[in-house]
Amino acid sequence: MFSPAYSRSLGQAASFAGAYRSVGVETGVADASPHKLIEMLFDGYMEALKQAHGYLASGQIELKGRALSKAARIVDEGLKACLNLGEGGRLAQDLHDLYAYLTVRLTLANVRNDANVIIECENLMEPLREAWKAIGPRVQAGRLN
Description:
By secondary structure, the protein is mostly helical. The chain has helices spanning 4-10, 13-22, 34-57, 61-80, 89-112, 115-140.
């Protein structure tokens, strides 16, 4: 069975969906579970960074800026906005701090056209993304404790 804090966070599905829509990440929101919505935010973030890296490499600076702005919005308006700092304890605070750091680093990557900072932002988020995906089947089966 789900822990009470996790169950309450799952009850925020409308908030997740709204945050997801507000950052313009692809379709599938209407039928997605709260867990799947967060997974889609992670995927959208990584895709935006991949695009930014490609645009930077090809000298398309305006498009690079748009892609990095999208990644930052996903972090701020999606992932960070969905955290429950009141009930999420240390983990929620650590994620909040990480997301704040990523926002600063994404801004720096944009201003300096720094591919290494983009890679750093990918590397910081990838373990979270993979862990989130890994627990998906347990969440779906209702066995997350």
